[in-house]
Amino acid sequence: MSGMIKTIGGLLRQKKVSCAELTQAYLDGIAKDNSTLNAYVRVTADRALETAGAVDRKIAAGEPLSLLEGIPMTLKDNISTRGIETTCCSRILKGYTPIYDATVWQTLQKQNAVLLGKTNMDEFAMGSSCETSCFGGAANPFDTGHVAGGSSGGGASAVGGNLAVYALGSDTGGSIRQPAGFCGLVGLKPTYGAVSRFGLIAYASSLDQIGPICKTVSDAAAVFETISDRDPMDSTSVGRKESVLAQLEQKPDSLTIGVVKEYFHGVEPQVETALQEAVRTYEKLGAKIVELSMPAISYALPVYYILACAEASSNLGRYDGIRYGYRAEHYNSIHEMICKTRSEGFGPEVQRRILLGSYVLSAGYYDAYYKKAQNLRGAVIRGFEETFAQCDVILAPTVPMTAFPKGFAEQDQVQTYQTDICTVPVNIAGIPALSMPCGYDRKGLPIGMQLIANRFEEKKLLQTAFLFEQEMAGEIYRKTEWGCRQYA
Amino acid sequence: MREYELVAGLETHVELSTKTKIFCGCTTEFGGAPNTHCCPICIGLPGVLPKLNRQVVRYGILAGLATNCKINPVSKMDRKNYVYPDLPKAYQVSQYDKPLCLDGAIELDSGKKIRLTRIHIEEDAGKLVHERGDTFVDYNRGGVPLIEVVTEPDFRSIEEVKEYVEKLQLLMKYIGVSDCKMQEGSLRCDVNISVRPKGSDTFGTRTEIKNMNSFTFMTKALEYEFERQVDLLENGEQVIQETRRYNDATGETESMRSKEDAHDYRYFKEPDLVTIRTSEEEIEELRAMLPELPDQKRARYLEMGINEGDTAALIRSRRAAEFFDEAAKGLKMPKTAAAFIVGQMFSRYSTEEQRDAWEVSITPTQLHELCELVESGKCNRNLAKTAFDKMLDTGKSATEFLSASDLAGISDEQLCEICQKVMNQNSDAVQSYRNGKESVLKALVGAVMRETRGRADASKATGLLIDMLKKE
User: Fold this and answer.
1) Which fold has domain A4-250+433-487?
2) Is the separation of the CB atoms in A79 and A102 below 8 Å?
3) How far B153 CA sits from the closest chain A CA (Å)?
4) For B43, which of A235, A323, A370 is closest by C-beta distance?
5) Residues A90, A175, A218, A313: which is the catalytic one?
6) What's CA A456's distance to the chain center, in Å?
7) Residue of A88, A206, A322 lying closest to B271 (CB–CB)
8) pLDDT tens digits, residue range A267-281?
9) DSSP-derived secondary structure letter, A326
10) pLDDT tens digits, one per residue of B344-363
């Protein structure tokens, strides 16, 4: 698979299609399908066409194009864009237009990335179905009666529904990988610190990481290579420029794949079968398979919800109606104004997590919850260190099931939290992981396979994924429609 | 009535004089139109991240070294969560359980040591402005770096509190980490105060008085609060643990919030910043940058024979003290230089700020030259004083104002002749003196000085006259 970015870039360079035509085709697609998918919450058509015009002028002048130049894409609605409303799909940020650009968007703008719009998400990235969005959920392109997943559901819905070539999402506990898994896409959560978080509206600062959602592994490599770098504006950024794309086709020297049994507890049979099939494929491709155990995984879910909610309760304290965004209409005092603004502006899931987070940090409960969770975070990190001493890459399900039907998440929050079990350990440890399709269930919904590597081993991770994709392309992509087909 | 003793501990916030704020590039300058020294970072817009200004850490370490603290090789920033409109992120980035500096002390003149628990770095909040019946927020001060200096409850009198604050203020100015202008709020104190019967060794219930930014208010507030607590106990009532503030209009302290309403700050490590590591090399580099501190200067000046008064005056301004050090280098009697500075230079400044600014027209070398002329006896003190005033006015050297004859001096022989001449011209006075009216001596000395246009050494002339008057 050469990837959509390379293919479309080639068409632009060969002048088989102009960037304006390409952009307009995507805008037409959005006009036609977005009412069904609800992938976009804001479309930036004028700006997209303006950028496309600039790219076309460069092509006409014979100037070389950079990797992502002229490629139509989207940003999750929690990535700050100067002059474009950015709301985290929350009523409380209604009308908030950033006065500065997130570092990733600065980088992409320099490359003339064509921004089609901002995509739907769970409110402040809290959710697994995109349905906590104040704009309503995004639909799964494979079956619009099912959710696209969350929280970066809009990005996955847009890319899966051919309404964008790639999307940038954010992943705090699986928010890139889970929707990618649900929509049959490749979603990469880079190492914590590999991509600048500056301008990403925080949910849980020690877990959040920006990454791409794409159709293919090579697209993910192209976007990752562009956005990963050290950023002086982000003190936790430790990224470095690394060329991944050029070495994607290199087979890793030796490949030991770890199958950690705890990842398979409670996994739906169809998902388990598809993953066992994937393991056999790797074996056939020459990988060594080792079965491993990592008991610390059982701590991951409570650790995640305690830490994420604690940080969120602090990060979301600033939305008080004083400086920007929504403000309650009727109040008699500043105290009442802040209380009413927050009660009216935040949805129930966000309020639940703020309360939970405030509780676990409060005097008297701190040691029992937050401190214990921090200690167990260490146990999870050590668990991965021990596991990676025995293998190169871990193969696991992305989600124990395929896409939920709409309304499922709302019915049982605790059960929905539990579906994050396979994705959260990676965020707790700050390591990179990727989800890619490895088959379909009987309803025709995609099954996601998760590959996990050690810190800063994105190259190995992407090479391992590419290997599988090359072998299985015909099989796993048989149901995805190619957005670029009409130009090929 | 029993006798009571005050027990107090201080938390002092000192605004650091770094050029830029603690987490962004905005200026820390005082004043400015509201909300003009701000950016997305210091007003906490969604998505921004802090970037620690290393100079703040270095200033914090300097403050720690100047107060004999241990410097923590590994410290961290924490979030202190509370809601107030002047705090745009709803948390203050501060240090909780791993402060930059620990276990220091400041010694009072009595030799008593006030122990410092810790010094930590943090960001300041904005300011509420009440105008036209409405409330506005000015975030210019938001993100200005502070250190908080926390003492043990070691104070036993208001005088000790005052002396400590003055010493701390002077120290911080000396090491150049803060201008400590109380009227601009760059030094503010919270005092924890309790009372107990004299001789008791248990602590009473304390109250905390917040945000005092002048010595006058602080003294008044502490006096009032001490009396209030004593009255409560004397009337058989109890002191309630609470936070209070001083109301200048009533001259009283009033309750702000009780212990039950105390904030639960929900401290946790600031996840957007990394651990602060300080190497032994950096600490040593900073230690080497410390100037001679006020207490060290004081000891040295007294050793040099400078009187208590001049010593105290000199060390109150680092620049004045350094001017003195430069001027006094190599002088036999450095107190001459001290007297010139304290007597004639300080009197030219009407405020402490002016003295701190130390804008002087002459160089230390020029003062040194003048002192040498005095020491060698070439120029007497009176002439030198007059010349020094002119030097300060013009910036010119002493020789510009002293003629060759001024500097020639008068030989003992010449002085004898002049004294004789004066005695001859004032025979009445001479007779009066000899009849026992010794007060006329002054007039005779004055006449000698006039005759010599002030060049004569008055004390020498006096001695000589007495000898001659008695002789005949």
Assistant:
1) Amidase signature (AS) enzymes (3.90.1300)
2) yes
3) 24
4) A323
5) A175
6) 18
7) A206
8) 999 999 999 999 999
9) -
10) 888 888 887 788 788 888 89
